[in-house]
Amino acid sequence: MVTTIDPENRPFVSEASVSVEIETEGMTLNIGPQHPSTHGVLRLVAKVEGEQIFNVEPVLGYMHRGYEKLAEVRTYPQVTTLVNRIDWVSGFANEIPFMAATEELMEIEVPQRALYIRLILTEMARICSHFVFNGAYPLEIGALTPLFYAMEDRERVLDLIESVTGGRFHPNFNRIGGIKPAAGAGPTTKKDIQDLPIGFYKETQLAMEKILAAADKFEDLVGGNEVFRARTKGVGVLPYDIASSYGVSGPILRASGVKFDLRSTTDYLPYKDLDFEIPIGENGDCYDRWYVRLQEIRESAKLVLQAIDAIPTGPLQTKVPKVIKVPKGEAYVRAENPKGEMGYYVISEGGLGPYRLKIRTASFSNISVLPWILEGVLIPDLLAIMGSFDFVLGDVDR
Amino acid sequence: MNDKMIQPETDSFFDEIANNFTNVSNDYRTIKISIKSSDWVSTITKLKDEHGLIFFSWLSAVDWTNEVVTGEPPKDKVEECFEILCCLSDIEYGNLVIVSTKIDKKNPTIDSLVDVYVGANWHERESYEMFGIIFEGHPDLKKLYLPDHFEGFPLLKSYELLSREVKPWPGEVDVEAMPDDESENKEQRKEE
Questions:
Q1: Alpha-carbon distance A126 to B34, whole Å?
Q2: Domains defined for chain A, CATH in brackets
Q3: Beta partners for B27?
Q4: Which chain B residue has its CA at the smallest distance from A398's CA?
Q5: pTM: predicted TM-score of the whole model, two decimal places
């Protein structure tokens, strides 16, 4: 699809036409929907003038699965299966706010040990998500090697998640009032207490030490690369006030210099008992967005190491009724997911399933800023900027 | 508890909101302000300018009705209306407010928030295609997820979920016995 743009009202004159005096016609460039540098199918309709973009319109909906409608015809325990698949790179972390919201409505106190296991697995999911980013982002701007290192290190964490939950990407491990008895922990009889697998703490410790070493390796390999720095520094600068009015959250907001992390302000998991830093960026450019996520890998690994030291003994489940009915009420619980703020607004009418479930996903709001940030950038920078937003289309389209 | 943690000022923040607005509730630690639809933009502007809620979290709607095609209907009689919800937050202490208003289903119109928060743009488009709510003053109110030729508003309670029409969900009937339940039963049978 090519449209001609009135040369009199051309918003940008490309440098080529100034220096070499070649007339460039404005045209509409369709990027996608097949996998334009990212995880899922997003289509961009970009109006370009030479190499410069002056208007971009994302076209969504290729992955729309209608989870909000599907949740209305399911019972509360069945919804967990759905929410796993929203952001499939960090499936476990998606379950937490839904569980917290439902438990808030049912006024259930979850045992500390279950909360700690949730915390450990959530931080592992964050490490997975950030490793995928750390592998995919250099790939998008031309460096192939980091991907292989990233996948190797992510596999260590996925193995640990699998050893506990039995699933790599979609654990479906949380239950209302606690967690499911862990996989691989002895015979499955009701009498034996099923807990974390034998040797889990030692394996985790070894893996986290390797993760910390891998983070250092990535800092040298990617951050020390001259080409990577040139492609990302000063590119795609996002001021914090623009970010917050678009609802951009998570590492992207922190890269713009805002020290705001829901893990430190809300108590959906026992983060207040543990010690961690909130890394922030200075310039809000692509490089900062990469660097904040790299540092978050370290903080998450440290959180896991602290949590396996501090984890209390005790039950994994509170007593809940066999058929779960949630009392009438409305609650919103949000959590700091790898991609940003994820929240569930649960409206219960006292039935077996939610009357309405509003799912607030991070990537949806994060990429709503794309038309603003891509205005006036060059096409090669489009990939650098889009990649730095680290969105998953399942998280955008729900 | 370590010193680095920022303590949420939820209690004092709730007092601040309760003193400045009427119809404020704080059930299940979710602060909710219920307002008239004519005060929609002015209230939200006030929250942004005077109470530091500069982060636009989300906007959505609820279809309140007793005539439900998919899912369970509410047990009590509810007033037929669309409830519009808007969630705002700050980016310092984690204070959060849900603003709610009710509009008539026969005339589902409300002022757009795009001039207050640019981020409302996509959320309003989503509510438009899912519920048919018209946001007046929206710069480009068209479908967001659904194809252009799609008919109907999927999140309305009167909209049938096609997969459930084709094959009804077995629900609780589907629950299979756990393997150890069977073994226990066998043991019991042996004992018997």
A1: 36
A2: 67-397 (1.10.645.10)
A3: B30
A4: B145
A5: 0.82
